Protein 1
Amino acid sequence: MRFALAAILCAVACCQPVRAQVAPSTILRIEVTNVVRYVDDAADVTTIATNLSATTAIPIRNFRRAVLIGDIVAVNGQPAKGTII
């Protein structure tokens, strides 16, 4: 019994809390130009992609879908080329 108690006390005395290693945070700054928003505002789904001219936007009522597409010109201040969707 004494041996078990001595083993437990040694284990408790030798164990220290270990802290996790946390990587430093990094800020990613992306500069974008020429952003165009395509809004899914058609009330009649049969008319989607049938009119080649620009349509007038319908005022927002509740929730609706939109896709934004733009050109990436810089990442963290360094020139870059790409597309953001």
Protein 2
Amino acid sequence: MVFKLPMQIFAVILILLLVATSCSTRTKQLEAQHALLVQQNAALQKQLAASLKGVTIIGPVENSFVPWVAGLTLAQAVATANYLEPDEPKEITITRQGETATLDAQALLSGAAVPLEMGDVIEIKP
């Protein structure tokens, strides 16, 4: 009986070590998979941005994608997108390369020329 207790303890310790090693290996595998997915996502976003040569309009518009032309302005993009609401927009947000700027829609309506760049995302809030 004296030998069984130490052997049982040894077996439990061995099992715990195997489980801990297995968990550590699985965590490393998951981290590697996550890193690969992040890299693939970044590559796909670059490809998508390169293939979509224009600006995206989010909001109540008929056409959410406006093809790029040199000198494209915010007013031209909104007109091309065909704003569908009967009331004037209250706020317009432009996102360019991860940075966002919010404009008062009155600036657009007063005729201010706001130049756009390829890949800009415009959000119109009625």
